[in-house]
Known about the structure:
- The structure is a single chain.
- This protein is of the alpha+beta class.
- 22% of the residues lie in helices and 39% in strands.
- It has 5 helices and 9 strands.
- An 8-stranded antiparallel β-barrel has the order 1-5-4-3-2-6-7-9.
Amino acid sequence: MECVVQGIIETQHVEALEILLQGLCGVHKERLRIHELCLKSGPNLGHVASEVRVLCDLEQPDPTWMVRHIGGAMRGSGADQISVLVRAMVESKVSKNVLRLFYALGYKLDHELLRVGFAFHFQRGASITVTVSSVNKMLKLHATDEAVPVTPGIQLVEVTALASSENYTEVAAAVSSFCEHLAPLLHLSKPGTSTGVVSTAAAAAASLMSDAGVTTL
């Protein structure tokens, strides 16, 4: 399973966020260019629809493939009392023939996206990943070079951490604690409950850029 929160930030403030993350994480960023294909099962695979995501990292010299299945979110009073979403998630490395396999099983392509940005992977009470990316849609099938932004001028920020049924409370607390440091620039919440761009973002970004000695036009 994984703990996850999401938020959005204006593209003009992404450089300031990167400076902040660099200072907090103490590691180098990893560039991302992920082609994401969402596949859904057909009626021949049962009454309950199944959805999997096939991911190809185009930033790598030899593109690598992953398959990811996101299950249901944890429910109940315990879930309501924590500020992050805890959900089932399984992923695995696969070969480049994975699409052919899923199509043969009866899955159909529902939609595809191109996520372009960067990520930080670090240890801070848990193994945490922060991803900042623009989400782009394809105008033609698999035409990643012609992708256009879904929301121009806005980028998605996602903080995730792998957890288990034994330690999700501690992992959720570590994620929440880390997110507090990003509060001046953006608000992170459970997926589906975003509060939008925060009013303090511009001032916080200007301060970070100034402290870093970056001149803005």
